[in-house]
Queue: 2 jobs
Job 1
Amino acid sequence: MTILTPNSPTAELQAMDAAHHMHPFSTNDDLAKKGARVITRAEGCWLTDSDGNRILDGMAGLWCVNIGYGRRELADAAALQIQELPYYNTFFQTTHVPSLNLAARLAELAPGDLNHVFFACSGSEANDTNLRMVRTYWHEKGQPERQVIISRWNGYHGSSVGSGSLGGMKGIHAQGGLPIPGIHHIGQPHWWAEGGDMTPEEFGLMRARELEQAIQEIGPDKVAAFIAEPIQGAGGVIVPPDSYWPEIKRIVKEYGILLIADEVICGFGRTGQWFGSQTLDIQPDIMTVAKGLSSGYQPIGASIVSDEVAAVIDATEFNHGYTYSGHPVACAVALENLRILEEEGIVDRVREETAPYLKQKFESLTDHPMVGEAKIAGMMGSIALTPDKASRAPFKAEAGTVGYVTRERCFANNLIMRHVGDRMIISPPLVISKSEIDTLIERAWQSLDEAHAQIKAEGIS
Ligand SMILES: *Cc1c(COP(=O)(O)O)cnc(C)c1O
């Protein structure tokens, strides 16, 4: 058979892709007709496609390439590790150097007493671990009836059966018989879309108190944990009102339930601190990490677990693990990634310099006639598209129509900016420079203009 190369003609690459490759979260028939864009290489914040276009990656891949593309050090770390020890398991009384080093490094970086690490290969897997771990924790503590996990509508925790159930994405629940039993969803702190006439602060408090109501309805002795992203990512970069997290903190403490912070996006500098939990001043019992842990160079995730939870779990045999838990190559690459993040002061630079600059530029997009609000925390931001800024009204067209048109204009203008419904979101590599931020904003503005003209011409309102 033919093996194609990055230099093969685009049409051939697309045809073979369409014939055999089933893309995630896609309608593959539509994609096949259009042809997937073939990304062939990348450097810094820039992707190159098979036609030679250079595209500014405003999404850091899928929220993960925090240190940017093309870092030779990570390639070297992988090559060395593959030669020395490409694989060994950690199930049967064995360990290896990269996994123990990375576990210790994560314990050092993570806030408070989060000192113990269970490895997975992705965020979904790590959340599956968490689901089983918190239920096992309460079982071992002699409270086996504490099994319900509370999470939020429109939260994202992955797309496996367990993590997809934890998440609150209706499109995921609709396929394959999810959610599994024992998961209860409450409302999200999404003021723009759901806040009505309340102030953001009133609304944030109201949504936090849904947690307390849920605990009381389910029974305080039946609730194991609450899981949430510090700032929702895939749900549309929803920065909660300031009143939200302090009230959640009060409630989890008062009812003694475990708090799982899903840091898969917020972790490793995205919000201007090492973890979103630090930015939002929360102290979880378990943190889920993945994505930025290796800057996406290798698939790896982990649960970072408190002394208290680990003490209970470690006293029994936890019948759980993945063949590639703590994969040595992934761990070696993650360690190198963390070294670069720290030694190059990337997280500090985000907080002190580039995120404030991006915030100022990004918020100026609200001057555009179609943009209602801009929300940003560190290097993750979103704008709400609306036909009427004052009333925060949605478009008459089906939700997501205008967002999709706008995203298509961005793509055509060589800017990767995603849409979630009619919100446009960004999450660029943390190494993005001020001049690249200028380019991002210019292209976003241009794309908004074109989308605005297009929806007028097509009578979309
Ligand atoms: C991406 C994501 C996940 C799932 O991670 P995968 O590596 O895709 O399985 C879980 N939680 C959050 C917050 C995410 O953004």
Job 2
Amino acid sequence: MHLARFPRLHLAHLPTPLEKLDRLTRELGGPEIWIKRDDCTGLSTGGNKTRKLEFLMAEAQQQGADIVITQGATQSNHARQTAAFAAKLGMGCHLLLEDRTGYEDRNYRFSGNVLLDLLHGATTERRESGLDMNAEMEAVADGMRASGKNVYTIPGGGSNPTGALGYVNCALELIAQANAQSLRIDHIVHATGSAGTQAGLVVGLKAMNANIPLLGIGVRAPKEAQENNVYALAQTTAEKLGCAGVVRRDDVVANTDYVGEGYGLPAPSTIEAIKMFSQLESILLDPVYSGKGAAGLIDLIRKGRFSKNDRIVFLHTGGSAALFGYTQAFDDLIG
Ligand SMILES: *Cc1c(COP(=O)(O)O)cnc(C)c1O
């Protein structure tokens, strides 16, 4: 595989830092915890979608698009990073935002990522939950095409084989960093949602034959469905890269025990993880993804799932802007 064969806009701040979390490691009594700071990709408070958008937006530009459309939940980090990327390129951006939580408060509906979407000049429209959002988006795109626009549509989370190339690239970057520091990595853990992050990582790791287990902590779908989604996207991504078949079904592992009551609804373990990272390490997680991913990491460490001598890399996928849409989850602090 050779990523330079694919169009790409180098807009992210890369490589992202790889840092040791001493106080969290001590608090949990080992294993050694490191963090890969993909919350620091640079664009409008950063996050994992920026790596995907480097490839997606290059394709949009190559196709002469004047506007991009994408979709996500109300507090979608993906929507915000797409709006920011489009602004930077002087392209239009239209967002379909799905109400997956039923939260009515003003911060949830208009602050956090939504405020940033609007600041970046994106236009938005809302949808009730439960619709086929990619179909809704295609219908809106068709309407725009009929009025003469050149529209590029990006699926939810930027998760298609083009977007997943961003996380193949992240796997290459992480292994190169670890090699340069003689840092043996025993496990990688991260939050998994629309599947592009885990699919790209697993393709990159397998193509390098790195032999490092990867664990996705789910935020929405049940385990079997999540693993199947990741596996399907890993296969098509590997084909795109000319290394079809490098990923086997059992290379794809998700743990969905930390979803709580549903997508976008923080569980007590999510809030605990957010507080631990912010108070021990001054790192901001989010209530929808990275907080649940970290809750899984913390609980599995407490249950002895990893050996004390292991070195774990937690991939921080970003999302802190959503904190400002979720002030009601921190009423105990606010009083
Ligand atoms: C989108 C997102 C994820 C999940 O990544 P996928 O590629 O959709 O699986 C994790 N963390 C944050 C903060 C995200 O915005």
